[in-house]
């Protein structure tokens, strides 16, 4: 049995156990995961590294125009994001991250913590080291992981059809080679360019507004008629005039 199939089987068992109201319904989770394992149920008022790990995975569910802070504090915004994540996957939307929620996350992620439908290689075709950008290699790779989880939420909202990433992290050399802007968010590892596929560029730009991206550039914005760009800049800047954005 493959690792993903085993993880899916374990997730189903956990969901059944949780629904029956047994011990697992109040303990965090006894399941070990190759990426990260939560050891307690999390809810409003909790704080710590385990909250941060949860926030990374539900950051694609902040609500329209919202951006979830990855700060390790389980406040109202995190509670709301967890509820949206739970609702999106057919779980009881109580805003409490327990066995059922963690089991769904385990089923969605690979052992390197990337979500099921995206990979580090997909977010970095520039080099293998994540170096040479505007931030350290560690930060660039971490930023890319956060981008991928938001893209996973976007993908799920669009019917779980593929999303094609055409550009992710760039070193200064790679950015210069493609004529990127000097302050491009690609240099920070927190940007992704999306190509048309099952969904039009405008559909991608429009839906991205619901999944925590501060930067959205698409058709009608100079240089963006052949892709939709999403990123995590500090302030909101959305512009895709041809798409009504």
Low-confidence segments, given as residue ranges, are 10-30
For the record, give the distance between the C-alpha atoms at the N and C termini, rounded to a whole number.
46 Å
* Rg from Cα: 18 Å
- Secondary-structure element sequence? HHHHHHEHEHEEE
Largest sheet, if any? 5 strands, mixed
Report on the architecture of this protein.
The protein is α+β, with helices and mostly antiparallel strands and 245 residues long. The protein has helices at 3-19, 49-58, 76-88, 99-108, 120-123, 137-157, 172-177, 201-208, and strands at residues 164-167, 192-195, 215-217, 228-231, 237-239. The protein has a five-stranded mixed sheet with strand order 1-2-4-3-5, covered by helices on one side. α1 runs antiparallel to α4 (99-108). The longest helix has 21 residues, at 137-157. It is globular and about 45 Å long. It starts with a helix and ends in a 6-residue tail after the last strand.
Search tags:
alpha+beta; 245 residues; single chain; 5-stranded mixed beta sheet
Q: What is the structure about, briefly put?
A:
With 245 residues, the chain is α+β, with helices and mostly antiparallel strands.
Detail the topology: elements first, then pairings:
Layout: H1 3-19, H2 49-58, H3 76-88, H4 99-108, H5 120-123, H6 137-157, E1 164-167, H7 172-177, E2 192-195, H8 201-208, E3 215-217, E4 228-231, E5 237-239
Parallel strand pairs: 3-5
Antiparallel strand pairs: 1-2, 2-4, 3-4
Helix pairs in contact: 1-4
């Amino acid at each position: 049995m493959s690792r993903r199939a085993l993880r899916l089987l374990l997730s189903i068992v956990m969901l059944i156990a949780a629904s029956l109201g047994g011990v697992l319904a109040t303990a965090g989770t006894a399941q070990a995961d190759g990426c990260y394992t939560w050891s307690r149920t999390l809810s409003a008022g909790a704080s710590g590294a385990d909250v941060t790990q949860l926030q990374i995975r539900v950051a694609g569910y902040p609500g329209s125009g919202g951006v979830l802070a990855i700060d390790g504090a389980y406040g109202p915004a995190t509670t709301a994001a967890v509820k949206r994540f739970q609702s999106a996957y057919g779980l009881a939307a109580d805003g409490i991250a327990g066995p059922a929620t963690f089991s769904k996350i385990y089923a969605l992620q690979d052992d390197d913590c990337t979500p099921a439908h995206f990979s580090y290689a997909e977010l970095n075709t520039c080099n293998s080291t994540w170096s040479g950008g505007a931030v350290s290699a560690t930060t660039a790779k971490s930023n890319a992981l956060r981008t991928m989880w938001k893209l996973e939420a976007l993908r799920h909202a669009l019917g779980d059809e593929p999303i094609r990433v055409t550009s992710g992290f760039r070193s200064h050399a790679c950015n210069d080679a493609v004529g990127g802007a000097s302050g491009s968010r690609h240099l920070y590892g927190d940007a992704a360019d999306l190509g048309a596929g099952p969904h039009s560029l405008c559909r991608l730009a429009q839906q991205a507004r619901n999944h925590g991206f501060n930067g959205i550039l698409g058709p009608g914005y100079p240089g963006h008629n052949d892709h939709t760009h999403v990123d995590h800049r500090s302030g909101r800047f959305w512009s895709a005039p041809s798409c009504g954005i």
